Amino acid sequence: MKTRYKLSILFITIIAIVSFGCKKSDIIRPYGSDKTIPKQVLNLSQEGIYGGAIIRYDLPDDKNLSYVKAVYTLSNGKTSEVKASFYTDSLILQGFGETGSYPVKVYSVSTSEVMSEPLTINVQPLTPANQAVIDQLTVIPTYGGIKVDVNNPTKAQLAVSIMKKVSGIWQLVKVEYVKLANYSFYIRGQESIESTYGFIAKDRWENSSEMREVTLTPILEIQCDATKFKAYTLPTDNILYHTSFGVMSALWDNVFEATNRKGLFVTRPGEGMDEDGALWITFDLGLTYKLNRYVWRPRVAANEQYKAGDPKRWEIYGSNAPNPNGSFDSSWTLMGLFENMPPSGEVVATAEDRAYAIKGIDYMFPESLPPFRYIRIKFLENHGGSNIYTMEETYWYGSIAN
Q1: Interval 84-113 mean pLDDT
Q2: Span 120-142, mean pLDDT?
């Protein structure tokens, strides 16, 4: 006990000596007090990149050199600077909102924060990423709205504003945040009349692109009336749901797990599957529809997007007169094989991937398909490699067949 007490006193004494022995000025001042001006870098060159430039140079033979600094003025008038340690031979400049020639001052800085005289080089940034993205947007009409495909090879963080001209006045429809290299999104709920849409992208330096205008006519569609949906269980179907919740109607009840756990569709673990590990369910739409698309919304509350019981691959079949024995015979038409993978392509889903899924993922049906009343979903594989499937909601869209 005495030994432990003596060790504690010794530890406290050492901390006190170290703390009081260091003045505040000693802690925050630059390393060293040598006021020698460092040598300038050599052989400056530049390469334009999207909205910026790379300045390359040779380091001088100077042991007093700490880092190299570039100071420049952006196209919006703001001054910016970037630093690179003596372990590298280049500086990356970003934030230019326009192409052109911009002077940049390059300094060598010593360990005592003494700067050399500046060297000046003019850089020529390429088209900024936000403008390049807007120039390369693909916008096409789709059911109930428009589809926008984004090509963003630099993975720039952008806010894309979508506007619509109404009676000659631009009105904001939506702001879509983009970070992925290849990204698609939809604007739904639009009337099937010729309309003009405007697109502007803003980057993290508050640079805005020029507006891109597109005029097109969305394709007419309606949302299927889910109040008429009902389970249509056939002999081979899975009817084993989670013991306390998870029945089939949870797929279209518009009730979410966050407010009521019974709003979640969950199969019973390890049961109802065939020899290949697949299981299927069948339901009646209540009316016969020429289906255009559906929206697949994964489980949200447990943060299970792209893992656990989140479906990875599945098939959808349609029928107007299913064989009552439940077999997959000619009474069923394969409407498509579908896959749910992170848009980023990463093995582990990113925050952007999960946000993309939570909004609901659009899947299109081939236009050549006939109208159907009965739908069968065959689950083939989930992301967790387990024997359970979970889903939050599905929404179905098309037109009522005559």
Answers
A1: 95
A2: 95
For residue 231, give both structure tokens: 């389970």
Q: How far apart are CA 312 and CA 310, in angstroms?
A: 6
End-to-end, the C-alpha distance of the chain in Å comes to 92
8 Å CB contact between 310 and 298: yes
Please tell me the distance from the alpha carbon of residue 280 to that of residue 322, in angstroms, as a whole number: 14
Measured in degrees and rounded to the nearest 5, phi and psi for residue 400 equal -70, 130
- 120 forms bridges with which residues in the sheet? 105
Distance CA 92, CA 338 (A): 42
What is the spatial distance between Cα 357 and Cα 296, in angstroms, rounded to a whole number? 8
On the CB side of 92, how many CA atoms lie within 13 Å of its CA?
5
Q: What are phi and psi of 107, to 5 degrees?
A: -120, 145
Model-level pTM greater than 0.70?
A: no
**Residue 385: what pLDDT?**
87
Contacts of 310 (CB under 8 A, 6+ apart): 298, 299, 304, 340, 382, 383, 384, 390
* Dihedral sign, Cα of residue 377, residue 383, residue 389, residue 390: negative
CA dist., res. 155 & res. 191, Å (int): 32
| Token code pair at residue 316 | 């959808």
